[in-house]
Fold this protein.
Amino acid sequence: MKKAIYPGTFDPVTYGHLDIIKRAVRLFDHVIVSVAESAAKNPLFTAEERVVMIREVCEIDNVSVDRFKGLLVDYATEQNAVALIRGLRAVSDFEYEFQMALVNRKLSEELSTVFLMPHEQYTHLNSSIVREVASFGGDVSPYVPPQIVQYLKEKFSE
Ligand code: COA
């Protein structure tokens, strides 16, 4: 049973993340999408809200949704995962991802980071852009599923 972890802040989950999840389940027996608290990023949604949102839009066999605190490699070891999944959207992602993958490898030699490229229609996308457009009442339906559009509307009307 080869398990992989797809970690991220997912504030909120986008079609770009969902694209990576669908590619990852074709390679592994089980994928755990795991929400990091990422307190330093001052997320719009709580970790619990982000978990609920992903569960709602990601009903795929062999995918589960969880959250974690602390070091990613410790969590991955607890889960008996063999790999970490990360998306590479553009060259600009490379340096940071390379650094993170090497640090994680230093912390746990057993764990490999697997990079997947999302469909090119999602390479310009990130969650900050979605949050910003939604905060000004712009249309984010090309970027996130309808349920997430609704969650964003509710959050910005609070
Ligand atoms: N489609 C759309 N957007 C994508 C994407 C895709 N396929 N892939 C990445 N993104 C976006 C994310 O939504 C995020 O957007 P935002 O910053 O505008 O909110 C951005 O690209 C990536 O942010 P980044 O900070 O690189 O990753 P992350 O926040 O998703 O996850 C963790 C980072 C949680 C994996 C990392 O901080 C971590 O492992 N933390 C745990 C502590 C730890 O172990 N640290 C040591 C690791 S070296």
User: Anything to note?
Assistant: The pocket of coenzyme A is lined by residues 7-9, 11, 14, 16-17, 20, 36, 38, 71-72, 87, 89, 96, 100, 103-104, 118, 122, 125-128 (CB under 6 Å). The chain has one domain: 3-123. Helices lie at 15-25, 47-57, 72-78, 91-107, 127-135, 146-156.
